[in-house]
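Q: What would this complex look like in 3D?
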Amino acid sequence: MDSNIPHTLPRKSATFDDYTLSEIRRAAQTGIYDIRGAGAKRKLPHFDDLLFLGASMSRYPLEGYREKCGTNVVLGTRFAKKPIELKIPITIAGMSFGSLSANAKEALGRGASAAGTSTTTGDGGMTPEERGQSKHLVYQYLPSRYGMNPDDLRKADAIEVVIGQGAKPGGGGMLLGQKISDRVAAMRCLPKGIDQRSACRHPDWTGPDDLEIKIQELREITNWEKPIYIKVGGARPYYDVALAVKAGADVVVVDGMQGGTAATQEVFIEHVGQPTLACIRPAVKALQELGMHRKVQLIVSGGIRNGADVAKALALGADAVAIGTAALVALGDNDPAYEEEYRALGTTAGAYDDWHEGKDPAGITTQDPALMQRLDPVKAGRRLYNYLKVMTLEAQTIARANGKSHVHNLEPEDLVALTIEAAAMAQVPLAGTSWIPGKQPF
Amino acid sequence: MSTQGLSELDLQKAGVRGINQTLQGLAKNTNQRHWLVRNPMGQHAIAVGLDAPLHVEVHGHVGFYCGGMNKESEIIIHGHAGVGVAENMMSGLVWVKGNASESAGATGNGGLLVIDGDASSRCGISMKGIDIVVGGSVGHMSAFMAQRGNLVVCGDAGEALGDSIYEARLYVKGKAHGLGADCIEKEMRAEHLEDLAKLLERAKRKERPQDFRRYGSARKLYNFDVDHADAY
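A: Here is my prediction, written as structure tokens for the whole assembly.
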């Protein structure tokens, strides 16, 4: 090689980047698609692309430490005899016992209850630990009906009929055999150690007309007391929300693609469904057109991380948000304290997502008794409580700065977008302009 | 049939809510156990969520989910039943004297569902311990992902019987028009003949156990293997 001739630097393909190459090699070696937990990891238009304007000459701010800013929310005011009143508009999303340890479920219940909010069961039924520790418990009604029984249904404070979730709209679930302990197997009426597939469609109804009848049955069994939520993944939020209202929902939950899952195909997580930001306005529009905004409550989930995200979701028209991944991090998931163990698993703190393998060093996404013991449900519950309080204080700070005496008074007019994409999705003006893409010409 | 000694409820007057409130409100030790529901008019969610050893006779056709999530009660339907009859039943008995629509006994955990006539598609879907005896035939995809319990079909079974089946046992006297993924015919051993005889007797059927074939899981899809992916 002639050192006098200039050489170009080695150049890696933007299309075939290192991650893509590693995935091709992994697929070729194993013959199975990559399964992982969590939600979409790709960069997406999100709440970070929105800013609040704050108060100035034409808006009066509220005094930060003296003037009240309400955060309560009532869910289920449409039909339920016993709506749920929460102190804060941040709920804990559905996560199953089976994918999570019993200690983790207990910790979620403890933290949520202390903060005055609800937690939610998942695919696998209700455990005494979470019922006992959850003041407000939402019981998921899923296609698999694992663990479903009328006694637990009546013990619930609300029922969430799950049509889909943001990580995999149109997909069922999978709990791999290594996480099927004796207790999990017994709750799901299946042998120990086998892969447990959860169906993607409900076994006894198809479409919104049938769902209306199914909801009637659930209400009849529970004396019309419980609020009934319908949860959809971020697929076609305008139509899905309209149909959920038609089917008789008290509350609609819309989960964007950043919303986590216990386990599914990577290709599904990253390539099916819409970002949370793109789902909110169509959902709100459907409710407004039906005259049901604030009458049927809207819960938004998928990538909510802090009080600013909460405030932005509410400003766009949600009544509350739900958190899943962030709640697990608050409990201790992906904590750098376990870095050595994450490395032994071939990953690093912050990137660990092989939740389906049941080897979680933090003792959260596991059924291994020794690992589970690492999570103290009292201490972890306290961490979740602290985090929920901080998020609430942050949302209040923003609301007061925008002159609002309740977080629900935040509105789209308080927001601008930093990118054209976010402006189009959130239907708020691009910062420094009055331009809302899709609404009027630039 | 005689209706002497039965307390009567007229759905036309009481509505579905009134019927369910009355039946659900009875104490487990009530001596008012025998009930007759008139004019069901194909309404949905009749006699759901019962939780006491009642005997309920429904005279007429019922809509979706009659007897849903039943515990302990005996519910006799003198007519046809809509979608999801006895769905998620925990215990007790639901007996359809006519035909049943789709997803009969779906996800049932226990108890006995008898359908004297035919059942439509997805009979026993995701069943988790319920016993189902169908006097006639069942439609396609019956016992899909069936986990536990017994499905007895005295007539024929439609396409893809027992698709992705787990540990449930299927007995078919007539023809099975195709088996679903991972469902195979299995040897009928003495223990199965004995179980089947008991089920037929409970359903007051005259068929002989030795005339049935047994189907169940090949258990090849229990843990994912790329070489079995084409089986789905």
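A: To summarize the key features: Chain A has one domain: 35-426. Residues 384 and 395 of chain A are 17 Å apart (CA to CA).
Q: Very helpful, thank you.
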